[in-house]
Amino acid sequence: MRSLWLISVSGSFLPNTVMQHPERHPDARHWLLERTVLPQHTDHAGVMWHGAHLAWLEEARVEALAAAGLAYADLSRRGLELPVVSLAIDYRQALHHGDRVRLLSRVLPRQGLKLPWQSRFLRPDDSLAAEARVELVLVQFDGGPARRRLLRRLPPELELAVSSLVAGPEGTPL
Description:
By secondary structure, this protein is an alpha+beta fold. It is 21% helix and 30% strand.
């Protein structure tokens, strides 16, 4: 299923549009992924299972990276990966089967070797369902398990993509 990037303009959602006035809209620097809670995302009571949150966080990161100009598959073909080294989710309200959910993600500037992401899961009424913080690092995997190494410097194309991610879909530096 192809994801659809949506950006809020005066409270409405328009496919493939960007906000016109980011200074008036606090979410202008957030990458937005919109999804519906399906049966496979829920437990027997129809409540979104905690593991589904993780899958949506991963999808949001991969899609945002592609929108910033670098497909994750291209990174992997070069022997590079961005594994999660830290993850925290605070669940506030349950999401239920049929709920339309907006996942707002913001990429923060690198902190040493870590690339931190902050995400919010918003319910249909815009109330906060969950908050997450994910930290990634860049690892080179080419050459087999014995030759894995943590990279301190990002390759130029990844550095450019990370700058775009931090700026947000509007493309305006913080």
